[in-house]
Structures are given as C-alpha cells and as structure tokens.
Amino acid sequence: MAREVKIGNRVVGDGHPAFIVAEVGVNHNGSIDIAKDLIMQAHHAGVEAVKFQKRTPELCVPKDQWDLMRETPWGYISYIEYRRKMEFQQAQYTEIDRYCKELGMSWFASVWDEPSVEFLDAFNPICYKVPSASLTDHGLLNCLRETGRPVILSTGMSTMEQIREAVRLLDKDKLVLCHATSTYPCDPHELNLHVIEELRKEFPCPIGYSGHEVGLITSVVSVALGACMVERHITLYRSMWGSDQAASVEPQGFERLVKYIRVTEQSLGDGVKRVYDSEIPSMRKLRRCQ
C-alpha cells in the first residue's frame, strides 16, 4: 500500500519530493505586514506552504498563568493579554488568504482548540496541523477527523503510547506524522532523528520532521532518513523579539535549506547498483582487469 496523502495539489509521501513548510507561527509578533513579508520570503525560497498558529487564549492559557506579567513589544502586560495581542483575527486571516492566493502559495495553521478549527474551516485550508502540545487533546483530534481534511500531527514531548492513541483517533489515510522535539532551540543530542525510522516501521502513514534546531544540516539529514515533509520556522531576523525566533531560519537560510533538500533527494537514487554511462571512460582508462 502506498504511503502517501494528498495535501492541496501535492501528494506527500514516499517517492515524492519532500513537502517543505515554512512556519511563520507567531514570528509575526502581531503584525500583518511582518506576516506578509515572511510569506513573500518563503515563496521566494521555494517552499510548498506557509503555516500559522491559531488558538483561543482563554482556552489554551492555564488560568494560573493569566495574570503573570511579562515584558512584550506592547509593554509590561499580563500573559493572557499578550496572547490576545498575538492572535490574528478574521481581518488578518482574510488578508493572509488573499495574499497567498495572489502568490500561488498554500497556507494552513496549527489549531490549538476546537473553536479555532471552526474559525479556520471557513478558509477551506489544505490541511490542519496538530501541535505537539495538543497531541493528547482527544476532543480536538475527534473534531479534526470530522472535518475530513488531512491532518499533520507533531509528536514532540510525547510517548509512543500517546502517539498510538492519537493515531487511533485520526484517519490514517489522511494523516502525516511528524517527528519533533519540543525544545526551542533544540540541542543536537536531543533531536534523535532515528525516531523517523522507527515511526516509519510502525505507522502506515507518511512520516515528516518538524525541526526546532539551530542550523540546516540536521533537517536535511531527516530527508535521507525517510522524512517526506520538513517544517522549520521562518523569521526575518533571529534576533527579533519572540520565543521561537532563535530556533528559526532566516530567508537566505531557507533558500539553502530548500536547495540542500532537493539535492539530497536527487542523490539518494533508487538503491539499485549500476554502472553509469558517465563512469565508462574512467573504467576504460583506470581499470587494468576487465
């Protein structure tokens, strides 16, 4: 059985080019202008889609953290107020949808709660992403299955049994499972990329990689290990304010990432040992015993 899922106009899975996603996430810092700049940079880099995050702060922020104060671009405010200011609403997502269509770009979002699913469904997204933090939210998983849309599920901070339970609730014919470690940025010793191979052995769906490390090499290696989707955060400058910026990739880095992944895919081949026509002149010149 083919290990593939149709997402938008792309088939994601074995034998197909890696589906590369630039996650804007919350790196826009509440600015639609920054968001549009990041979309343009991702488009220029050659990615397949950009991703945002949508949540209802009152549902997703634990009550005991609402009144904690923190420094933000809007001043010294409570955590719940900060989360509200970071959320794009109808007008901003309408503009994101318009701008992506103008560029011919696909977009979707991670959804952190059920009202966010209803909100985004009006935009007819190509798929939904379940963030690692919501892998154990079975109500959300059931809600997503009912939409009938493809689902990408990140597996950071989760045990194998928790992953199995989540997969049981979702439509495996419309599921992409992503290996991830939820540390920002993640130390190379904790990336554990061989988990990609273990997930491929156990689950019949395409396996991807959602990376939060510094640098590009390990994300490229994930493709060599069988990841057919790669997601990295994109930022204008890693020095910008925000918790995800340090684990993000700047525009020029994203261009290199796409290039390196495509070269890696070409170099993997089909595993059948053969003598290439290009080798014959060297063979005639250098091999003494035919």
Structure summary, number of beta strands? 12
CATH architecture descriptor name: Alpha-Beta Barrel
- What structural class do you assign from the helix and strand content? alpha/beta
Task: Assign a percent range to the helix content.
Answer: 25-40%
Describe this structure as you would to a colleague.
This protein is α/β, with parallel strands linked by helices and 290 residues long. It has a single domain (4-286), classed as TIM Barrel (Alpha-Beta Barrel), CATH 3.20.20.70. Helix content is 38%, strand content 20%. The protein contains 11 helices and 12 strands. The protein has helices spanning 32-45, 57-60, 79-86, 90-103, 114-121, 138-147, 160-169, 195-202, 217-224, 251-268, 280-286, and strands at 4-7, 10-13, 19-25, 49-54, 69-72, 75-78, 106-111, 128-130, 151-154, 175-179, 207-211, 229-233. Strands 3-4-7-8-9-10-11-12 form an 8-stranded parallel β-barrel, surrounded by 6 helices. The protein has a two-stranded antiparallel sheet with strand order 1-2. Strand 8 (128-130), helix 6 (138-147) and strand 9 form a beta-alpha-beta unit. Helix 1 (32-45) runs parallel beside helix 4 and helix 1 (32-45) packs parallel to helix 10. The termini are far apart.
